[in-house]
Amino acid sequence: MSNITLKSISKKQNEIVYRFNIPDEIKKHINETWIDEGEGKLFVKVPEEVRVDEIPNSVLSIPFIGTMMGVAMLYQIPIEIKEIDADYLESVKKLNSIFNKMYPKGKLKLEVIPASIVKNKTDGVERDKTSVFFTGGVDATSALVETVELKPLMINIVGGDIALSNQEAHNRLEKYLKEIKEDIKGTDYCFIESNCRELFKEYSFDEKFKKFISREQWSGYWASVAHIVTMTAIISPIIYSKNINYHYIGSSHSSQDSAFDANNEEIVNAINYCGCKFVSADAELDRNDKVKKIVEYAFDTNKYFQLQVCWHKENGRNCCKCEKCYRTIMNVLAAHGDTNKFGFRYDSEKMKEIEKFLETTPIKTSYWKTTQLAFADDKDFWKDKDLSWFIDFKFNKPKTYLHKAIKIVKERL
């Protein structure tokens, strides 16, 4: 078995290109688009003001390591590089332990073999430089509200949640970030572009991971394994060049929640390099708590966020007819917010649409029960309103599954 070896790091203006060998075991997981003359190709493109020629290779190796981490530990293949940041190497060791605790039946092994270990700058890092991952979703927006007084740099990875080819969605997000920057003085934003996600055929991991991760816990390679270790690594050129000392990431789940993925407090807090600490924001809050915080911030400041939550956006906007849109609409309503001011279209017909959806579609009850409890705790407010039905609504009734079965049969005819 050969190692996953970083063959070269090339720098051209604001782009970093990594070429690496592809061991036979992992070839089926690499998209052919990113294979050139038998070698894999990863790229990271940073803002033009970032001087990549002034960033040491021990830092520039971090994006490659983070991107390859998931597949490497799955196949127990070492990642071989010439240089690594000393703090990040310690982070890798911690992450190995954490992933094995998360997925004990996986026999995962994460090993990085560096030719040299470099202690990069920690002294002189400005104590007030803060950044936050920002996609426009609930988790990211709540993290922004949490850090807004620190005037954070909002960082988004093009090729992460938004596909590299989806220029329309990217343009809309950039327009939104500009509006936030103008509305909340002192904040700023930047984009990093990378094929870190599209490098892999994500579906190709399902069979191997599902052997030791339950159906309830498996949300795909990106969510269940790769996204936090990859994205925190991809932004290392920004962290280093801008002397950022704290980077905040919105938590996916409350620390009290039985559900979890690879965005959890233990993983985030284990990551550290170049004097920057990574912090899981709002780890103690569930989705309703986060939306409530966002709504209350809007009430207090008259600054409304256009939440970006939909997996099926239409012209860059929330479709307002999928499970996630419906669920977020109910989150906003539970906080007494006007959903139309937070990026959703809602009226009495939409309410009926949501009720019909819940009557005919099996849902993950852990996602909806907390919202229902928020309505129940506020039942005096809702008792005489059209949404009062939701307080005692029974999820996933037998007829709900019957509706689903009929729908499947009709689709196959």
Number of strands: 12
Portion of residues in beta strands equals 15-25%
Query: Which stretches of 5+ consecutive residues score pLDDT under 50?
Result: 254-259
Helix tally? 14
Quaternary structure state of the chains depicted: single chain
Description:
With 413 residues, this protein is of the alpha/beta class. The protein is 40% helix and 17% strand. The protein contains 14 helices and twelve strands. Strands 1, 2, 3, 4, 5, 6, 7, 8, 9, 10, 11 and 12 form a twelve-stranded mixed beta sheet that branches. Helix 3 packs across helix 9. The protein is globular. It starts with a strand and ends with a helix.
Can you describe this structure in just a few lines?
The protein is an alpha/beta fold. Helix content is 40%, strand content 17%. Strands 1, 2, 3, 4, 5, 6, 7, 8, 9, 10, 11 and 12 form a twelve-stranded mixed sheet that branches.
Topology:
Layout: E1 4-12, E2 15-21, E3 35-36, E4 39-45, H1 57-75, E5 79-85, H2 86-102, E6 112-118, E7 130-133, H3 138-147, E8 153-158, H4 167-183, E9 188-194, H5 206-209, H6 221-234, H7 236-241, E10 246-250, H8 265-270, E11 272-273, E12 276-281, H9 287-301, H10 323-334, H11 348-360, H12 365-377, H13 379-382, H14 398-412
Parallel strand pairs: 1-5, 5-6, 7-8, 7-10, 8-9, 10-12
Antiparallel strand pairs: 1-2, 2-4, 3-4, 4-9, 11-12
Helix pairs in contact: 1-6, 3-9, 9-10, 10-12
